[in-house]
Amino acid sequence: MTDPSAASRRPVQAVVLAGGQGSRLRPYTDDRPKPMVEIPGTGTPIIGHQLAWLAEEGVTDVVVSCGHLAEVLQKWLESADLPLSVTTVVETEPLGRGGGLKYAAAHLPHPDRPWYATNGDIWTRFSLRDMADFHAERDAVATLALARPRLPWGAVQTDGFGHITDFIEAPPSTFEINAGVYVFSSGFAAMLPERGDHERTTFPRLARERRLAGFPIPQGSYWRAIDTAKDLTEAARELAALGGR
């Protein structure tokens, strides 16, 4: 049974990291930042779907960290009918992933409360509320969502004698990966570097101290990182099969 006080510990604020150049998505990113790229058939840029999802999960305030072609993203955010309050910040000089996250977190409205964060190129749907409860139950400082992506190649199954028994198209990976969605306790921002990559500094230290948790995205939930034009095509096909959710 869920702790009745769990709702009070769930984040109502989030950071979206939207500053990458998206060079692997060119030419789509020649005139817009990566999160502004639209998945064919949806009519909405990636970040629009992210903000809708965050609002559905109880988030009321979002800080969007901008970089490449920031003005394009800011103009869209100003004109869009959004379901929550959005503030944008722009790095005046490159701070690295950890420094950028720290800079954005400094603009959250509730510094004494936990917060979500997500990379701006992630398309997913699962319960952030469940992830927040998982985070609180483990008394973690940071919790990463874990995905098991499908491999881009076909796989071959063999028996003990070396005979091929089956071919499997795009099988799921045997390893879980960082899915680019996070829950952070209020004190996490102070642990981030002013410059540099938190995944090489803060995360390894928290892992050694057993204060870093991993939340497996539930089986059947949708997740995809949009890195290339092929990802756009495949996401459009997958979402059509799922009814556009």
Automatic annotation (TrEMBL):
PANTHER family assigned: SUGAR-1-PHOSPHATE GUANYL TRANSFERASE
InterPro entries: Mannose-1P_guanyltransferase, NTP_transferase_dom, Nucleotide-diphossugar_trans
Pfam family, one: NTP_transferase
SUPFAM superfamilies in the cross-refs: Nucleotide-diphospho-sugar transferases
UniProt protein name: Nucleotidyltransferase family protein
Lineage: Bacteria, Bacillati, Actinomycetota, Actinomycetes, Kitasatosporales
Domain Nucleotidyl transferase: 14-239
Membrane-spanning intervals of the chain: none
